[in-house]
Amino acid sequence: MPLIYKICPAALWCEAEAKGRFDGAPIDLADGYIHFSTGAQVAETAAKHFAGQDGLLLIAIDGERLGSALRYEPSRGGALFPHLYAPLDPKAARWIVPMPLKKDNHHVLPEDLA
């Protein structure tokens, strides 16, 4: 299973690392699952839901490590998005990079998202 990605405010992720558990951002808590994106979906997710927001991190997670609590479900336009129906252990992060804003208010993202 390829990597999946969470866009998260740095302060919220730091809190999760300190307590050893990420229960989600406010939207995740409201929806009852933690929203993730595939590599092909990250740029659109960033533009649609995080436009102009600074202080964000892109967190890569090995979806296989999440077991049956991870489900791919249809969302915008019928695309399948990964949703986690459990808390996330911050130690599951494969890597974490900042998402600085460019002058055009779009985020800098790694080029090789798989």
List the secondary-structure elements in sequence, H or E. Answer: EHHEHEEEE
Protein structure class:
alpha+beta
CATH superfamily: Protein of unknown function DUF952
CATH fold field value: ADP-ribosylation fold
Shape: globular
Question: Any idea what the radius of gyration is?
Answer: 13 Å
Q: How many domains, in number, for the residues?
A: 1
Extract low-pLDDT stretches: none
Strand order of the largest sheet: 1-3-6
Mean pLDDT: 93
| Biggest sheet record | 3 strands, antiparallel
Assess the beta-strand content as a share of residues. Answer: 25-35%
CATH class: Alpha Beta
- From the N-terminal CA to the C-terminal CA, the straight-line distance is 10 Å
For the record, the CATH architecture stands as Alpha-Beta Barrel
Work out the helicity level: 10-25%
Helix tally equals 3
Overview of this structure, please?
The chain is α+β, with helices and mostly antiparallel strands and 114 residues long. It has 3 helices and 6 strands, in the order βααβαββββ. A hairpin with a 5-residue loop joins β4 and β5 (80-84). The mean pLDDT is 93.
